[in-house]
Amino acid sequence: MTEKAVETLTEAEARAELARLAEALAAANTAYHTLDAPEISDAEYDALKRRNLAIEARFPGLKRADSPSDLVGATVAEGFGKVPHRVRMLSLENAFAAEEVAEFDDRIRRFLGLTGEVSYTAEPKIDGLSLSLRYQDGMLVQAATRGDGEVGEDVTQNARTIADIPQRVTGDAPQVLEVRGEVYMSHADFAALNDRQAAAGDKTFANPRNAAAGSLRQLDARITASRPLRFFAYAWGELSAPLATTQSAAIARLAALGFQTNPLTTLCDGPEALLDQYRRIEALRATLEYDIDGVVYKVNDLGLQARLGFRSSTPRWAIAHKFPAELAWTELLGIDIQVGRTGALSPVARLKPVTVGGVVVSNATLHNEDYIAGRDSRGEAIRGGKDIRVGDWVQVYRAGDVIPKVADVDLSRRKDGSQPYVFPEICPECGSPAHREEGDSVRRCTGGLICPAQAVERLKHFVSRGAFDIEGLGAKQVEMFFKDPILPVKTPADIFTLAERDANNPLQKLKNREGFGEVSAAKLFAAIEVRRTIPLDRLIFAFGIRHVGEVAAGLLARHYTNWEAFETAITRATPGTPDWAELTSINGVGEVMAQSLVDAFQNPAERAAIDALAAQLTIQPVQARGVVDSPVAGKTVVFTGSLEKMTRAEAKARAEALGAKVAGSVSAKTDLVVAGPGAGSKAKDAERLGIEIIDEDAWLRLIGG
Length: 705
What we know:
Elements: H1 11-34, H2 42-58, E1 82-84, E2 93-95, H3 98-112, E3 119-126, E4 129-136, E5 139-145, E6 151-153, H4 156-159, E7 176-184, H5 187-199, H6 208-216, H7 221-225, E8 230-239, H8 247-256, E9 266-269, H9 271-284, E10 292-299, H10 302-308, E11 318-322, E12 326-339, E13 345-356, E14 359-365, H11 369-373, E15 393-398, E16 405-409, E17 434-435, E18 444-445, H12 452-462, H13 475-483, H14 492-495, H15 498-503, H16 518-530, E19 533-535, H17 536-542, H18 550-560, H19 563-572, H20 578-585, H21 591-602, H22 604-614, E20 618-620, E21 636-640, H23 648-657, E22 661-662, E23 672-675, H24 681-689, E24 692-694, H25 696-703
Parallel strand pairs: 2-11, 19-20, 21-22, 21-23, 23-24
Antiparallel strand pairs: 1-6, 3-9, 3-10, 4-5, 4-7, 7-8, 10-11, 12-13, 12-15, 13-14, 15-16, 17-18
Helix pairs in contact: 1-2, 3-9, 17-18, 19-21
């Protein structure tokens, strides 16, 4: 999809676009990492994330608290114990063209001040599930999935069943050794597993990655043991002693300790050698016994890796060069409009089933009405101005383990008499007008809570994994209870009165309904009761307020710490008030998100639903993050002006790692302002408020940098 160029966006358009991108990417992260059910293509995901980064670079003041540039993976699924990663498990920046690989190399050399060639390793990017293995005194003591990068799932017993994973490492290993790699399934093993599943009448898997992820994340380790999982080691986390001085030597050390490492890993000097290896691996792709979706490049010298460091969610010293997407042609049978919880009208292509990259697909995203019409948000032509019509033959675009998108149209096969698709201006679910705000590419139903589709989708969001995650109350049950004439659930608060209403119901009891029995009904009521106590961050996310994702909910919860403070502040926070200034000073909480929160709490119907829910719950406070012995732990810091010894992003990351809150504006609650050359209004505000101002050198001395 061709969108308005970032350099031409107005500030209002940029806000709206960042909001759209945050919502789309948060949903994609949850679908891929938590549910193992991806909904958009890898290529589309990467394009959205890069657009988000470009807009943030042009409008740094608009960066959101739930910015996708700060996200790694998605929230941990319930059912497994949680394992905090002592060293974060980060994702990788992606490249798609040779020019981007050259730019990556240029950035490395500029950052380090080098003029000669840099040596890199190049290895296949395995399409599997990331896993971290912790060894102490040579023994495997814990295995954890990546999760959100900070907290993963404890899958130790399952990992012990994988033959490639040593229970005890051989040779002279560090006392603490955390080995990281990818769990995968070979093509032959995948085919054999699906044959067994089909013969037993069980669900088959779409592809090896889904099979591997589903197999590793079984609550019963005996099921995992019956699945043919493999493991490649390619990295490490916490170590009590270094493995080596270079990436290549460290990988060789892991192999000597008994781990499987990829034999195609190669040492390359400079970008041209990297591209040569990329082409060699791409040529081998069809002959490999496992799925890969690109090649990963890493700076070989571990000392240089340490100097390069990390961004918020990716290392500077590595990049994944992805393979091109896969294409196929098929017939567009129809266009359905789905209404989401925020009222967005999303067009979905219903396709004549077609195989793309070994997976049969029957639907695809059509993005929005402009994309269907063959234009971008400015009205300029995309796809040469070709619109998309029902009955057309369309090109399906797919990269990786995902539902595809429609990329092109074959006009030579267009049927006589076909008509342009007319995008609805009335909500198909409730009949309310569907409006498009200026700068927004999405048309939204204005019905709010009177729209049954929005109400149902909000309830589905409320019970989703990142929110209340009520066992036994999934999407199907939500739809059933929403329509139920005896025990209706129209708002979240209705969930927590369900057992009482059933007990007082003189008509048919839930235990006597089709699909329920005495045991299942009792389990549902018990599961609801367990969730009556909920942490503040999960509650804020569960509200489903537009622009407020899981990361933003966590930031808000840690800032206000308890429900009473949060509820009071948001109720009072109107533009120009101290509470508004405090809300918008939270790093990443821009005016768009703040206004969305305030609107929800001031809307009579929504506020009534929020208050009714809160009355049913015990809301647990969330403690602000801090670091023991840090001189800035718990302090609110503002950076302004030019920093000369580090980038603004590096300064922010360092401060937050030390337990500080980094705010985007100065308020009475600011503790410290770090001012570089060119500091303007923020420094003046600090002087007026009597807040301490220091320069960059003083800041580095303070934090011991």
